[in-house]
Design goal:
The protein has two domains: 277 residues, Rossmann fold (3-Layer(aba) Sandwich); 72 residues, no CATH class. It is 43% helix and 16% strand. Helix 10 links the parallel strand 6 and strand 7. Helix 3 packs across helix 5, helix 7 crosses helix 8 and helix 11 runs antiparallel to helix 15.
Length: 383
């Protein structure tokens, strides 16, 4: 079975010869993780258009893939070379790149517009790609804020980005993203004005978390559901967070939970994904457990739990997960020291909440493994 890297190496038809596919969407959602600042030819918040090929050719590949999941992925080298050699991507241009990080308000937002020649029904199209979570602790914190905030800063930025770029560029629009980027693509499409929404041909959410409450009545409309294409790997964890609908497509992946979040583990068949009939048992169990835990704790307690854990992580003065792991023993000791200094009531709340989550997960796991109890046999008096 092939990966999206194999697809890039094999598929050399132009968009005029083969219109935009779901696999292309995941490729573009992966490209937005590129460190375009390192290229030197892409200007932030500029309408200047730069060939994607030139970006890759003129930038050291280790700098281009730094500070994201691409940095350590096994297939990254092949992926970058395939992008540069691709006839399909040869005329794709990059514009309106933005990259915003604000630790104080727990915001991590990045997006880029890819101009695709004749990609949608033979017309030039604009693919707005929203970046998922990077390696910063603030970026991950913003993800968890979805469990108790109606709107996170990146969602507001995504709507503003769609409105600005949509007014500056003509033609059909396609929105997409991987991980949190998929959530941002959905949010922007759900909350934009009607004239922009009519121009959106499709919204691709690749393993992105959903919403505690729908941000707009549009979420249940038939026209939005026709445009929405949500895909999750068969052992998904992140893409099932807060998901209440069951109309997502399941992509085959032989990677274990958490690792299957990487786009390079998703299987491809021809010009589309290779689909699976159902989620793995572990994925379904974890999803059920997380949903049960989230609904067993009210929003205020979820906020307190997440904020306190984040503050403990911040006490280490690490700003990224890689920095945290570099001095792991020291950082764990720092967290333990600050944790011991918490108010006894707050410390007790953290321990109880954590234990409750572990208990729910353990119970759900046991239910999924143990056989159903035997049905009671009728007694002789019952005949």
């Amino acid at each position: 079975m092939e990966t999206i890297v194999d697809f890039l190496e094999r598929e050399q038809r132009t968009f005029a010869e083969l219109a935009l596919t779901p696999v292309d969407s995941l490729v573009l959602s992966s490209l937005v993780y590129f460190n375009f600042d390192a290229a030197g030819v892409v200007e932030r918040q500029s309408s200047r258009e730069v060939l994607l090929h030139d970006v890759v050719a003129l930038t050291p590949h280790d700098a281009l893939t730094a500070s994201s999941w691409l940095e350590d992925a096994e297939l990254t080298g092949r992926f970058v070379h395939a992008v540069m050699a691709s006839r399909r991507l040869r005329d794709v241009r990059v514009t309106f790149f933005v990259n915003e990080y604000a630790r104080a308000i727990e915001k991590q937002f990045s997006a880029a517009a890819f101009l695709l020649p004749r990609a949608v029904r033979g017309a030039d199209a604009v693919y707005l790609a929203f970046r998922g979570t990077d390696g910063t602790l603030a970026g991950w914190k913003e993800d968890f804020n979805l469990t108790f905030k109606n709107v996170i800063p990146s969602q507001a930025a995504a709507l503003q980005y769609l409105s600005g770029v949509g007014s500056a560029l003509a033609g059909p629009l396609v929105l997409g993203g991987h991980s949190k980027g998929g959530n941002l693509a959905q949010y922007a499409a759900l909350t934009c004005d009607d004239s922009l929404f009519e121009r959106i041909g499709a919204v691709y959410d690749h393993d992105g978390p959903s919403f505690f409450d729908d941000p707009s009545p549009r979420a249940s409309s038939e026209v939005f559901l026709r445009k929405l294409h949500k895909t999750v790997p068969s052992s998904s964890v992140f893409g099932l967070m807060l998901e209440r609908r069951g109309d997502y497509a399941i992509v085959a992946s032989d990677a274990p939970p958490f690792l299957s979040h990487s786009p390079f583990t998703w299987m491809v068949a021809g010009a589309d994904f290779a689909y699976a009939e159902k989620l793995t048992r572990g994925s379904a169990t974890f999803d059920r457990s997380l949903d049960e835990w989230l609904h067993s704790v009210d929003a205020g307690k979820r906020e307190l739990f997440i904020d306190t854990v984040y503050e403990l992580l911040m006490s280490t003065e690490a700003s990224t997960w890689s920095e945290f792991q570099e001095n792991l023993p020291k950082n764990i000791a720092t967290i333990a020291r600050h944790g011991a200094g918490l108010d006894s009531e707050l410390r007790g709340f953290l321990l109880r909440t954590f234990a409750q989550g572990v208990g729910i997960l353990t119970s759900s796991t046991a239910r999924s493994i143990l056989p159903d109890p035997p049905k009671r046999l009728p007694s002789s008096s019952e005949g």
